[in-house]
Amino acid sequence: MPFYVYILECSDGTYYTGHTGNLDHRMAQHSDGTGSRYTSKRRPLKLLWATDRQTREEAWELERRLHGWSRAKKEALMRGDLEALPGLALNREAREARALALRQAQGERVRYRKRS
């Protein structure tokens, strides 16, 4: 029996990622407001992407991985643009550090921000 990992778009434009053994049933739960607390307040919902895995553990692992992804990376996955994924894998701090290093290399004056 396959298990599914899916991404929904909520009415406020946010994405919700989940996994289930029965995608149709789970979508019905989300649609009637019993799927999750998060989606119950953000209906209507739209299924944007889904894939299957052989075991619940594999589906759970993929769901957890996707939770850590940026919106841009999730959108590249949903578009099927797998070549873009490695470039989007950098977290925000790594992107900022790379941009700072580039500006310094180009001789720009750099102001340092204090992080809270």
How would you portray this structure in words?
This protein has 116 residues and is of the alpha+beta class. It has helices at 23-32, 37-40, 56-67, 71-79, 85-88, 92-105; strands at residues 3-9, 15-20, 46-53. It has a three-stranded antiparallel beta sheet with strand order 2-1-3. It has two domains: 1-68, GIY-YIG endonuclease; 69-109, no CATH class. The mean pLDDT is 89. The chain contains six helices and three strands; from the N terminus they run E-E-H-H-E-H-H-H-H. The radius of gyration is 18 Å and the shape is elongated.
Can you give keywords for this protein?
116 residues; alpha+beta; GIY-YIG endonuclease; 2 domains; 3-stranded antiparallel beta sheet; 6 helices; 3 strands; elongated
Fold blueprint:
Elements lengths: L2 E7 L5 E6 L2 H10 L4 H4 L5 E8 L2 H12 L3 H9 L5 H4 L3 H14 L11
In short:
The protein is α+β, with helices and mostly antiparallel strands and 116 residues long. The protein has helices at 23-32, 37-40, 56-67, 71-79, 85-88, 92-105; strands at residues 3-9, 15-20, 46-53. It folds into two domains: 1-68, GIY-YIG endonuclease; 69-109, no CATH class.
